[in-house]
Amino acid sequence: MTESSNEGRSANLLGAFVLAAGDRLTGATGRATGRVPSDTAALVVLTTTLGGTSQDTLGRVLGLTQPGAARLVIRLVDAGLADRRAGQDGRTHAIRVTATGRAAAGQALSARQATAEALLDPLDAGERAQLTGLLEKLLGGATSSRADTLRICRLCDPGACGHYEGRCPVTLAAQER
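The structure assignment produced for this chain is given below.
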């Protein structure tokens, strides 16, 4: 056990909050889609940023092995949430979300937003503004490459983070590196 210090305490509190928030967000998005977390993340990322990507790229973004990505795509196709079309190079398939899959992704994003809002309820407007600045700084610090942007933002709503206005801290950090 380590000695109590402000630095150690902050890191410990952050770790506990990240786990609690992650559990709540994963549970809420899974309930919204009725899918396992990787399926939900795939639906969201295919809807928001990677529509028509290859199975290999999708697997890398989600941190899956090649067989794991293949099983995920099969699950989504079998459930009518995605389909496979010929890829640009003729050797790969482009994975696209169906209308049903887009609806499920929208439900996941709505559940994610509502859950995140509930986690912020204890904060007043000033504290939220302060937290936003701190989160932007932390997200920028957590981004070390362009590949990080897709992984970090796999469940993000690009409209909500300011991506389209050039305000996404993850994208901005990746551009600086």
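Interim note for the steering committee: The chain has two domains: 15-122, 124-177. The CA atoms of residues 62 and 151 lie 6 Å apart.
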